[in-house]
Structure formats: C-alpha cells, structure tokens
Design brief:
Structural class: alpha+beta
Number of helices: 11
Number of domains: 2
Strand content: 15-25%
Strand order of the largest sheet: 1-4-5-6-7-8-9-10
CATH architecture of the largest domain: 4-Layer Sandwich
Largest sheet: 8 strands, mixed
C-alpha cells in the first residue's frame, strides 16, 4: 500500500449500498455524507507504479536475476543476527481475554499508531471524522467474537471503540495498490520444500516501519494462527495457522464501497480460524460476503497453492502446474497471463522460471529484494507451511535486510497440547 499522492487514481463511489442494520434515515444520510468525503477526498493513498524500484529509470540497466553470482549479494542469512528487530506476542482464550491481553501488552504502541499513523492516512481531521462515521457501519457485520475482542482491546488500550474499529477497517475505506507474492512447489528447489514469499508494501509515514511484530493468537474453540502485523490490528494480512494454512493479500484497483460485509482483514483471519486447507479456504470465500476486491495467495501444509481473485460479486481461482510458479501482484488476471502489465509480476515469473530447481531460501530472498518497492516494503517474509516456519525481515526496504527464522509450530500449540 504505497504512499500518498494527488488522488487522480482514486475512483469515485458508484452504487454504494448500506448495511441492512442501518435503518434510520438520518443515520443513512450521515453514512452517505461520510462516504462522499472519504471516497472523493483524493490524495490519501496512490500507487507508485508496478516497476521495481531498481528499474524505475527506464534507461537504467535491469538488476541481475535472483540466481546471479557473487556480484549480487543476497540479504544476510537468518542466523547472522540472533536478536530479531520485532516482538512476538502470544494471546489466547476467550475473545475478551484475547482483546485485553493484546491491549495491555501493546497499549502505548497502539495509542501512538492511532495518533500518528491512522490519522495521517486520512490527512486531516475532517476526513478522519468521516472515516469514524463510515467505519461504524462495519460493527453489525463483524462476527460476534471479533466484535467482543475489539471492544476489550479498545478498553484495555484506552481508546474509543470507534477509533479501534476504524484502525481495523480503513483498508476497506481507502483504495490503495501494493504488495507482491509468489508460491512455489517443492519442485522449485533442491530441498523439495514448498514456499510462499511475500513483500508487504505500505506507507510508513516514518512511524510504521519500526512497529512490525508477530502476534500469535490461540482462540478458544478455533484454530490458532500467527499474523505478521502491527499493534492494534486484529485482522490478518499475512499469516499461518496451526495446520499450516498460509495466506497473504494484495490490493487491486477498485471502486470503494460502504460497509456491506466484514472488513477484508477480518475475513482472512476467519479463514485461518476456521479452515485447514486451501480447498476449505476457497469454499469459505465462496460462501461469505466479500467487502473489498483483493488478491489472496493461499498455500497449505500439503503444498497446495491457489491465488484467489476476489470481488464483492464473486471469486476467480488461479492455479499453476507443479513445475511452474504461482505469482500475483496488484491485478486481476483471470486466465490471462498478460506481459508488461506489472514488471514486478514479470520479474517474479521470469526469474523463477529461469532458476527453477534452484530456488532455495537465499534465492527467494534475493528475488523478494529485486521486486521490492524501496522504502514502501516494510515486511518481507517466506513461509514454509509444511514445517510451520516463517522467515521474516522488517523495516524500510525490508527485503534487503536480515531475515529471521521463527519456528511457529510450538508457538501455535497451547501448553496443554504439548
């Protein structure tokens, strides 16, 4: 999700529908007014374009491929920096217990991000106020346990519930474009390990770049999961559950809509809480209402891979042969593999095709660095679902930093299960 611009790429709202729970005419008018202010405000978030930062100058020589020799230095190995620059926070139990623990552990950081980041996304006090009104429409659309968790979180963090809800739904209200993913079968590397690589591109405003963390959630009665995230976010943009089901999202160009389903990050959390396999995740996406157009990369412990192109109207599933990569950036492609639509996508597909059979961790780290978007790439990661392992680098230009290995298996298992 790149930084702010002039708003020329932000589409206007058309055909916005309101939640069935909003029955009061005056309340409806408030939502209409707020939505108009947010959706036509412009200048909030824009794309920086699809070409990798290293090749942003059309006359420059292209960077070397991921398999290039010693002249192209890979990011440092995970073992070179013993202490990772991110925290791992574990919460569990009832929704209320999860929310309280999250809020108590991260209270100061949550309040700082609310004051310095969420408000910066909206640009001024009027747009932030409009965002609060529009976000309120999501409340009746949440799963009851997610609503209870958010309420407990807001109380523990000392913030109004409406502000916490906006922090967990602004991605649905403000259009943006960013991120890249690639899912590789075991045949891609000599060690036979299927892997999912992901760059998360997000504006930092010189605030969010050093606030990344891993939150491990063990909810009573649902699957445990780990999310690469920021303090105060209860949804999932990148994560893996106890069964190895892994997902990562990418935004696509879209027409903003007023609340009609749960925020998309909470939909993806629901997948991790309720599904074990890619097939189950696709079935849930077909059955649930979908608020926001997105791309969602999926991989499970068996190595099954799928890219789901999501719209409110339906989903399209893209797959790849075992001998080919499955890549996605910020476009819905369907059955078309259109070249030059996005140079990051072309780089992912081209490099992996050339280096097939040799795409170990180091080669994948270099590929992520090659397709990063400079300072916008705040998190870069490699998931190994079969072994419940995560390699993670964070900070500005994350893909060029040290990757740190986390064994998620023990973290996702409650003490009673060990």
């Amino acid at each position: 999700m790149p930084g702010r611009g002039n708003g020329s790429d932000i589409p206007t709202a058309t055909g916005c529908q309101f939640p069935a729970a909003s029955r009061c005419c005056c309340r409806r008018r408030r939502f209409v007014g707020a939505a108009g202010l947010i959706l036509t405000a412009g200048g909030v978030v824009m794309t920086v374009g699809c070409r990798p930062v290293a090749t942003a100058n059309p006359g420059a020589a292209p960077p070397p491929p991921a398999s290039a020799s010693a002249s192209s230095q890979p990011p440092p190995a995970a073992a070179t920096t013993p202490r990772p620059p991110f925290e791992v926070v574990t919460v569990g139990g009832t929704p209320e217990a999860i929310g309280r623990a999250h809020g108590q552990a991260l209270r100061d950081r949550i309040r700082m991000l609310e004051a310095r980041y969420v408000k910066a996304i909206f640009g001024d006090a009027n747009r932030h106020a409009a965002g609060l009104v529009a976000a309120a429409g999501f409340r009746p659309l949440l799963r009851p346990h997610h609503r209870a968790e958010l309420d407990a979180l807001s109380e523990a963090a000392g913030l109004p519930a409406g502000q916490m809800l906006l922090a967990n739904s602004f991605l649905d209200l403000v259009p943006s474009v960013g991120c890249s993913t690639i899912a590789l079968s075991g045949a891609a590397s000599a060690d036979g390990v299927p892997r999912l690589g992901r760059n998360l591109d997000f504006p930092s405003f010189d605030v969010a770049d050093d606030q990344s963390l891993v939150v491990v959630v063990r909810p009573a009665g649902r699957h445990a999961f780990a999310a690469v995230t920021w303090p105060g976010l209860v949804g999932v943009l990148s994560g893996m559950n106890e069964h190895g089901l892994t997902l990562a999202n990418m935004e696509v160009a879209r027409t903003p809509r007023l609340p009609d389903a749960m925020p998309y990050a909470l939909l993806y959390r629901t997948i991790l809480e309720e599904c074990r396999t890619v097939a189950e995740a696709i079935e849930l996406l077909e059955q649930e209402k979908r608020q926001t157009a997105n791309n969602l990369m999926l991989m499970d412990a068996a190595g099954d891979r799928a890219l789901v192109e999501i719209t409110p109207a339906g989903i399209v599933v893209r797959r790849a042969a075992a001998s080919a990569p499955l890549a996605a950036t910020n476009h819905h492609r369907g059955d078309r593999d259109e070249p030059r639509l996005c140079t990051r996508y072309d780089c992912l597909v081209g490099d992996t095709g050339r280096d097939w059979g040799r795409l170990d961790r180091g080669a994948l780290q270099k590929l992520l660095a090659r397709t990063s978007q400079g300072d916008l790439t705040l998190q870069s990661m490699i998931f190994e679902p079969h072994d419940r392992r995560l390699l993670l680098a964070v900070g500005k230009r994350a893909a060029g930093r040290a990757f740190h290995a986390l064994d998620l298996g023990p973290l996702l298992t409650s003490p009673a299960q060990r």
